[in-house]
Structures are given as C-alpha cells and as structure tokens.
Amino acid sequence: MDRIYEKPIEVYYKKYKNGLFGKQYSINLSVYSTHIEGDAFDFYDGQLSSDTDSFEIPYEAIKSISVGEIKGEKNIAIEYKKNSVVQGGTAQIVLMGIDEPQKWMNIIEAEKEKYLDKLNQKKNLEMEAEERKKQLELQREESAAGFYQKCYAHHIKEATPVYSLFADKNKSVVLYIDENKGLNFLKIDGYTGEENRGVINYNSIHYYDKAGNIHYATDIHGSYSSFGGSMTGANFSKLASIGGGLLFGLMGMAVGTALTYKPAEQKPSETSFSIDSDIKTIDDRNVILNFYSDSKGQYVDIELPYDIYNFLSTYLPEKKYNIVDELEKRTAVHQSSQIIERGDLLNIPAAQEEQKGIGMQKEDSGALFAQKIKKLKIMKDAGLLSDEEFDNKRKELLDMI
Fold first, then answer.
1. Whose CA is closest to 28, among 18, 20, 38, 37?
2. How many CB atoms lie within 10 A of CB 241?
3. 262, CA 20 to 30 Å: which among 10, 109, 115, 137?
4. For residues 284 and 216, what is the distance between their CA atoms, to the nearest angstrom?
C-alpha cells in the first residue's frame, strides 16, 4: 500500500532518561491506519539495546503487544515478525517510560483490528472474485466442449476416415472423407463458436503425389552485436498459409497461419562475436493435391503435410499420380487409335472436352495446340507413330497457328 500521503492517527513523543544521570533518548510512536512507526529500544535476550533505533511495523506483522516494567519503569513491549533468519524471524521493541501505556496499547490494538478486518474483507472479495472467475471459466469450457462435440459428431461418424491437421482443447482442423469420397476440411473452434468447412468433391480431385526432399547443408555462420537487441520468430508456415487460403476461401488464410505462427521474441542487447558451423536438416517434403477449382475456373495445386500421403493412399488409392497418369495415357492412346482409323488425327472430340470439365472452348487455339502436341507425343511413345509421321503431324500443327 502506498503510504506517502498517509497521515498519523495518534502521535506520542517523550524524552526518556536512562538512569539517574544517564543520557536522554527520544521515544516516538506514530499510529497509522496500516502500521506503526517511531523510535524505541530493541530488546534481545533480556537486555535493552544501548541506543534507540527507528522502526516501522505493519499491523499484520505484529504478534503481540503487552504492558510491563523494566527497571521499575512502565513500558510497552511489541513483538513482531521480522524479515530475517536471525532470532527465528521475530524481534521485539520496547517503548520505555511511556505515559498511559494501557491507553496506547489499546489504540494500537484497535487500529490493528480495523486494519486486519479490512484486509480480511479485501482477501474475501478477492477470493470471491477468483471463485467467480473459475466458475465462468468452467462454464466457458463446458460451453466450448459442448459446441465442439456437437459439431464434430454432426460431420464425423464412427466409421468416417479422419486425418488431424491441428488439434487443441475444444478446437481442431481435420480432413475427413465423406460417403461420396469428397475431401472435407473442417475447422471447429468451441470457444468462438466457429464451424467452417471446405469441400473438394471427388470428381474435382485430379491427383495427389509426393513432392520435395530432405536436404543436409553445412551452415557456417558468425554473429556480432553491440547495439540494441534483435527480433526472432514471427514465422508463418508457407504450407499452412497456402493450404488455408485455397481450401478455406470462406475462412481466409488466417486459418492456416494461426496454426503455426511463432510469436516474435525481443532479445536484450549484448556485445559478442562468434563463428560456428552446424549441419542443418532441411525437410521440404509435402504432398501436392491437384484439383479443379470452380472459383478459379482451372486446376490448382495445394500443399498438404507429407505424412497425409498414407491416409490418402488408403482411402483414395485411385487418385495417386502414377495411377491417374497411366489411365490418362491409356485413354489418350485409345482415342488416338480411333482418330487414326478415321483419318482425323488432329481433331479433338467434343466428348473429350466435356469429360475434362475444364471449360476449354475450341476457339482457345493455344490450349488446343498444347493438347494436340501432348497427344502426338503420347502416340509416338506408344509406337503408334513413326518419327517421320510425328514430324509431319507436328508441322501440320505449326502451320495451323
């Protein structure tokens, strides 16, 4: 408590003469609403100190107050707790020769009682506030848990394949496969009452495949600092940002970045210089999921955690890149064989455009040219065209531009 502007309630002052021809000492006592202070003799091991000393004692530290006599003179003795390991943590002062000692003892006791009552009231209020806070927190937790469990049970049944992207108490981001084999990205936050879901329909999924690798690099580095401090951290996951932005258009990119954000830390300034080296492991492995985005009107790639590959392989094995690629090659070879029989090699059937479902129109000559070149390459690799036939058909395409 701030005592700068606290005024004394009662003040006592007297000169005490120790012995018949002894030195005179000032005996002071100021009674405040929170403490007492003044000048008195220390009393230890049955002996008074040789001189008075200043004291300041909060009421909560006072253990006892008594009226007694030393050398035939009345006094007030005050025992109190002292912040010291000496004397078992207690000390005693003596106000020698004080007039009306019982009166002053009563004044001190009364102010002490009032202060301790206020202190107890304050502690009780703090305890009640803490209890209310705990009750509110308990209600918040129960509400969050109820919302979370209800949402989770609504979307995900016992047999639903689920992969956890992020999990915390009463909040999570999961990927699950619904009964139509669509990929569902579900975010639930029980505390804010948010439930968001992004869906990639099965027919929109083109393929998924592993990407990236593990690299090892020797990092030789030095450091020197003599001014100010440095900021570290504040890193956002590229994976989470990209994935969160594309998958959860309605949720925003914050969904991903919030899961992997490392807050910045301010380090104090120092002066140092060092050179060191270490082997760093750089793991940029991930899984690329390619799917058709209705909002963008084209196929897009998103990055997913590397260990999700086994989950996708288990429940969507037919969408692996190598399987999809092989099926597309076989389809292209089959269609090309039919075209060759009709003598219409460089035309692309309208049915194929509709099957692709990418909204490519015939007037889009650039896209048609690229598709025809790809088909020619597949036919050449499959042995349906000789090198000479391949060159001739490629020349025909070039002349069409």
1. 38
2. 19
3. 137
4. 11
Residue 317 near residue 323 (C-beta atoms within 8 A): yes
Q: 181, 202 in Cβ contact below 8 A?
A: yes
How far apart, in whole angstroms, are the C-alpha atoms of residue 201 and residue 247?
12
Look at the alpha carbons of 273, 274, 275, 277 in this order and tell me if their dihedral is positive or negative. Answer: negative
> Which of 249, 255, 117 has the alpha carbon at shortest distance from 194?
255
**What pLDDT sits at residue 281?**
80
Whether 76 shows a pLDDT value over 60: the answer reads: yes
Query: Residue 390, CB half-sphere, CA atoms under 13 Å: how many?
Result: 15
Nearest to 96 by CA among 154, 178, 40: 40
Amino acid letter at 24?
Q
DSSP string of 138-205, one letter each residue:
HHHHHHHHHHHHHHHHHH--TT--EEEEEEETTEEEEEEE-TT--EEEEEEETTTTEEEEEEE-GGGE
3-state secondary structure of 327: helix
Instruction: Kindly state the DSSP code that residue 128 receives in the 8-state scheme.
Output: H
CB atoms within 10 A of CB 178: 16
Contacts of residue 297, defined as CB under 8 A and 6 or more positions apart, other chains included, come to: 358, 359
pTM higher than 0.90 = no
The phi-psi region of residue 181 (left if phi > 0; otherwise alpha if psi is between -120 and 50; otherwise beta) is left
Average pLDDT over residues 175-202: 95
Backbone region of residue 22 per phi and psi (left: phi > 0; alpha: psi in -120 to 50; beta: other values): beta
Phi then psi for residue 82, to 5 deg, are -120, 140
Task: Name the pairing type of β-strands 214-225 and 230-232.
Answer: unpaired
| Confidence band, pLDDT 50/70/90 cuts, at residue 176 | very high
Pairwise CA distance, residues 163 & 157, whole Å: 13
Say if residue 305's pLDDT is above 70. Answer: yes
More confident residue, 364 or 303: 303
CA 39 and chain centroid, separation: 55
- For 341, residues 6+ apart whose C-beta sits below 8 A from its C-beta are none
Q: Mark 142-170 as b/e (b = at least 16 C-beta within 10 Å).
A: eebeebbeebbeebbeeeeebbebeeeeb
The pLDDT of 99-123, averaged and rounded, is: 95
Element (H, E) at 256: helix 254-260
Q: Specify whether the CB–CB gap between 90 and 97 falls below 8 A.
A: no
